[in-house]
């Protein structure tokens, strides 16, 4: 019906993650019996050229990409309808997209908006868009087949202990199942997903890791993997909670855990901690089975624990640094308008978030009293061109007067922020590259001695990392040759660099790993003052 309504315009279907966007687009093309990239296409940063065409009428895309498009087309004139899927995740781009769509309705009355989720509280969305022009449609979400849920609480001493016990339970379930049965084990971190399959390879169990920063080739191989004679275990982070379609899942084994990233605007630092998911998220995990045949869910915590969990996760917007968004908006809006727009969000950020972001941008010389500075403009270009986060882009742009390690490290962390993800490479010896007391130095050494010399070797991980670093270095050379930039950088004010690396995290006293190396590489002859960095 929506496709018939669209005419010459497109229908946009947005999802929070690139992996789920690609998977949903494949399913959509298959359902409509068309070639992916033609009538049904997809788009996100880094998508290949053949992901969509002039014939595309149904476009799957990340919500962040549509937000970026809305800056140039605030009334969504190119779209007949926008379907916002997985709205319960309440990611930052989702909230900004909902605000942009609400604003567009006043001028584009023909635009149709559908907000979708399997686990959502419709009340707040109804109030936000207005009950006079919004209606709630409840679709029966009952599973096609019965799912037997078993609470099996286990005690564990460490994250490694939990992983090993969860793997034993997963393998026992598969052992008792028929040939071709598959199970998925939900774990909190990428490290657990990778290490889990490394352990299973020793046990000769077919195992596939699923996590957010997988490259496209790995993801394609896993999502398209089909062998009805093998028993397969998937070890996944919450990226597989929804939208990703995995073949013939029979068992869900759930640790109930997730990694929560929270920004503290008072100390300007990111806190990373592990905690329990919400009931809505756990129900999404259980919903991975029971689609094509009866399934089983084994939950590694008590029923009492489950019932005491909050129903929904808090909006991600309340736990982020707003600096990048504010700097981007300041390129076209005055500061008062930016604050007004933020107050119109479904869940407005706190005043400490907004004020703290403005203060950091002023201190770092990215904003002047009324507009974006020359340095701020350069940093925004680096953010857009190389997909660096704001603070990593600042390190790269300021790198002409720094130790080169800082710029390289910023780009490396952006592309692949964990040395442990190199562990899957044949012949990799972590001990050989480890630098005592500094995870940053370890990661930089791996890049310099292993990744950089092998650039172009068709190893997707190495090429991804080196590609970002080399692009950042090229941009740095352009900056160095510009006298205006040179002068602008010299006028920079001291600022706190604690938030510059996305892996920086606050940890309890006595558990912080701080290396002198981190302080050394961030000193820039007085232009930027190094703060102690903590590393998860």
TrEMBL record:
PANTHER family: ATP-DEPENDENT RNA HELICASE, PRE-MRNA-SPLICING FACTOR ATP-DEPENDENT RNA HELICASE PRP16
Keywords, in A-Z order: ATP-binding, Helicase, Hydrolase, Nucleotide-binding
Domain Helicase C-terminal, residue spans: 161-346
Organism taxonomic ancestry: Eukaryota, Viridiplantae, Chlorophyta, core chlorophytes, Chlorophyceae
TM stretches of this protein: none
Protein name (Swiss-Prot/TrEMBL): RNA helicase
GO molecular function, one term: RNA binding
UniProt entry tagged with the keyword Mitochondrion: no
SUPFAM superfamilies registered for this protein in UniProt: P-loop containing nucleoside triphosphate hydrolases (SSF52540)
Any matching Pfam family: Helicase_C
Domain Helicase ATP-binding: 1-138
Keyword Nucleus among UniProt keywords: no
InterPro entries: DNA/RNA_helicase_DEAH_CS (IPR002464), Helicase_ATP-bd (IPR014001), Helicase_C-like (IPR001650), P-loop_NTPase (IPR027417)
